[in-house]
Each structure stands twice: as structure tokens, then as C-alpha cells.
Amino acid sequence: MKKIVFLAATVLLAAAILLTALKKPDDPDKNKTTGENRQTAVKAQPLSGSAEAKEGENAPDFALTNLSGKTIKLSDFKGRTVILNFWASWCPPCKAEMPDMQRFYEKNPNVAVLAVNLTNTETNENAPLDFVKKNGLTFQILFDMDGSVGTLYKTVTIPTTYFINAEGTITRKVIGPMDEKTMAGFVAEMQKGGKGKPE
């Protein structure tokens, strides 16, 4: 009797092992996130409900902290011409552009220059502070600690700059560095009611 029970148990165990071996393994890629849908998964949502910052549309509002620890909103500058620049201290084109932006600002104090540092991309928290001090930047430096404002403005390449008129409308988006003359040309044309083409 014991021999029969043992034999039956052995047969059942062998059958279970066989079924397990024949079972199709899970697709190793089934739970993987591909490069394409990984980007979708981590894409942050715009803070103001706007899907994208586009030319001809109102610039999405945001609030960030400046060098003094004060909270600055884009809407604080409604009624003024604004240059909104996205940068990082490790970015060579940003390094090349910043002295021109400082010279432009010194000659055009009526234009609000807001330089948003993509702090979440910096190698250390002191890097942007050292950069600002080294270059003697005196316009508003804002810190995007989590990258949410960069995402809101769809900033993929830096420097990226938005020219915003007194009504808060984006008149032009520029990807790449600019010199002082180009900035002045864009602003002059924008203030005349144009898109902002350089002279």
C-alpha cells in the first residue's frame, strides 16, 4: 500500500515538473519600459494646465526662488517686456551667451531678464552660484530645482530663450545662444508690435 502511495506521489511530482518546464516563460520584455514609453511615463504635466508654451500664446505662469530666496512669479512682470532664458552652468553655449545677456541687461534695464537655471541637471548645488558670481550676473537668476518649469516650457536643448511682450504673449522662441545685438533686435521689433526679427 505504501509502495502504491509513494509511486502515485512520484508520478504527480514528475507531472508537475513537466508542466512547469513546458510552460512558456514570461516575456522578459513584457514588464520593461521601452525608450519611447519611458519618456511618456516620466513626462511631467504642465503646472498651469497649458500643454505647451507656443509662440502667439500666453506664457505659462510659474513661481521660482531667486538668489535671495525670494519667490518670483513670471506674472509679476506683466506689463513689461521679458526675456525668459533657460540655462545650466555646465552648458558651453550658455557660458558663451551669458556675458552678452549681462551687457544687454545693463543697457536695457526696462527689460526684465529672467534666467531659469535647470538646477536638477547641475552636478552640484554650488555650480550655478559660482557661475553667477564669476560672470557678475545681476539680472534675476531663478532656480528650477525639480525641472518642472523646464518641462512646462518644453526645454529640451539649452540655452532656450522666450521673448514675451508686455501682454504676456510669447512672440518668439530661440534655441541656441545669442549675442547682444540679436537680443536687442528681437526686443526692438517685439516692442514695435512685430515678431521680433533681428535688425
From TrEMBL:
Keyword Phosphoprotein: no
Region (Disordered) residue spans: 25-56
Molecular-function annotations in GO: antioxidant activity; oxidoreductase activity
Alphabetized InterPro entries for the sequence: AhpC/TSA, Thioredoxin-like_sf, Thioredoxin_CS, Thioredoxin_domain, Thioredoxin_ResA/DsbE_sf
Signal peptide (residue range): 1-23
Membrane-spanning residues: none
Domain Thioredoxin span(s) in chain numbering: 53-192
One Pfam match: AhpC-TSA
Biased composition, class Basic and acidic residues, residue ranges: 25-35
Keywords of the record: Disulfide bond, Signal
PANTHER family assigned: THIOL:DISULFIDE INTERCHANGE PROTEIN DSBE (PTHR42852), THIOREDOXIN-LIKE PROTEIN HI_1115 (PTHR42852:SF17)
Protein name: TlpA disulfide reductase family protein
Organism classification: Bacteria, Bacillati, Bacillota, Bacilli, Bacillales
